Amino acid sequence: MTEKSGGRARRLLKNVLSAVLVLGAVGGGVAYTATTVDGADRTAPTVGWREPSATATPEDPAASVDKGRASTPMSKLLLPVPDGYVLGADLAGYGNDDELGAKQAAALFKKSSKGVYGKERRTYEKAVDALGIQGMAVRSYARVDNSLQAEVSILRMKDKKAVRKFFEIRKDLAELLDLDKGPKIEGHARNAFCHLSPEPEKPEDDGEERTPDLRAVICVAYDGEVMISVTAYGVPPLDTKAVAALVEKQLRHIESPGKYI
Predict the structure, then answer these.
(1) How many helical (H) and strand (E) elements, i.e. helices and strands, does the chain have?
(2) Which residues, other chains included, contact 251 with Cβ-Cβ below 8 Å and sequence gap of 6+?
(3) pLDDT tens for each residue of 37-95
(4) 44 and 29 in contact (C-beta within 8 Å)?
(5) Residue 165 and residue 21: Cα distance in Å, rounded?
(6) CB within 8 A of 78, min separation 6: which ones?
(7) Cα angle vertex 161, ends 195, 229, to 5°?
(8) Strand pairing partners for 136?
(9) Closest Cα partner for 19 from 133, 135, 116?
């Protein structure tokens, strides 16, 4: 690391430490990376795989008629379940298609400061309040063959400036932590990025049969006052192109909310 990049890293880490800004807020839980100035200690959430809540197949398309709720302004922003997918597993603390009001969504972010106390906690909570969170809608999607599960959250903030700032911080954090880059989102080079979770460690060759470790791709994007977070899990090799296509469809849908794409 050069002296210039080292200085940038220290400034960013100091900023992150003071506010414990989340790297990703997805669904009912908050997936975040905790960093410290001295050791850059990193923690990652454990991924649990569950069966999707529907069992549609190409032979039985009637089982996938539920495209998701579209009864509120926030739920209309979420991409209706596309062909080849069904509503996925329930998100921690919520169902697979839910919505949080402004106070609930802000409380969810503040909850991620667990273990932080005193001045740092107060600083973090002020940073969350400054985002001007208006609400959040969440939905999970699962491929009909169970090869991929995606969790999508739509977060509305008070203004475009807050959204762009939060987006840039999350992007800088991903680069600082040297996370592998994920797929590019066609037509959205400036307002979307993706990164991969670390490669799963190879299991011990002891003759035991184990479920393959899952790998995740995390994508972040924004459009106006709205921030989009997508976390997709799948058995390696993860179909990153399918994830990128899902994100691109979600962004196009936000441009024309309420219309099926």
Answers:
(1) 6, 9
(2) 185, 188, 191, 192, 221, 223, 228
(3) 223 232 333 333 344 444 444 444 444 347 999 989 999 999 999 999 999 998 877 78
(4) no
(5) 12
(6) 68, 69, 70, 97, 137, 138, 139, 152, 154, 250, 253
(7) 30
(8) 100, 155
(9) 116
